[in-house]
Amino acid sequence: MEGGSAETTQQLPFAKWKSDFSRAFQYYLDRSTPHPVGRWLGTLAVAAIYVLRVYYVQGFYIVSYGLGIYVLNLLIGFLSPKVDPELEVMDGASLPMKGSDEFKPFIRRLPEFKFWYSITKAFLVAFVMTFFSFFDVPVFWPILLCYWIVLFVLTMKRQILHMIKYKYVPFSIGKQKYTGRRSSGSSPSSSRD
């Protein structure tokens, strides 16, 4: 029995440290949520460091290819509606097809925050992988690059045709925003009589 209690006392500090680290990490992750520009600039910095590492090492092209495929998969999830009108028969929660249809907001299959978080984790994991030589498989990288470009073009063509067919825009840039009701020609101070 004594051996079990000694093992438990050794595991408790590690469990406490893990719990404290997890709580602190979640706290800072939650605090970053309302700052998308800062988050994406940080991810851009991580991506630049990864690209520089691969450039100076002159290797790890398979890791980069895998990272590119994963990011492409995330991008498709980010650009797709949560409920695809082609695949699922809806009971009122579909994208509007005509001008007379009721407005339904675009809900992404992969929300922006999860998209950012997944891309950032992917770049960090790929960066760590560049420190282990068994991930550096010798390949002719121009072939991988050409294959990835063809895959990207075909995938994005299909996604853009889907957007056109079902008339949705996954970006909120340039969309009208509700600003509240304004009275025409009268200010709040002139209506006090």
UniProtKB/TrEMBL annotation:
GO terms for biological process: protein retention in ER lumen; retrograde vesicle-mediated transport, Golgi to endoplasmic reticulum. Involved in the retrieval of endoplasmic reticulum membrane proteins from the early Golgi compartment. Keywords: Membrane, Transmembrane, Transmembrane helix. GO terms for cellular component: endoplasmic reticulum; Golgi membrane. This is Protein RER1. It is found in: Membrane. Belongs to the RER1 family. It comes from Amborella trichopoda. The lineage of its organism: Eukaryota, Viridiplantae, Streptophyta, Embryophyta, Tracheophyta. It comes from the Eukaryota. The chain crosses the membrane at residues 37-56, 62-80, 115-133, 139-156. It is a multi-pass membrane protein.
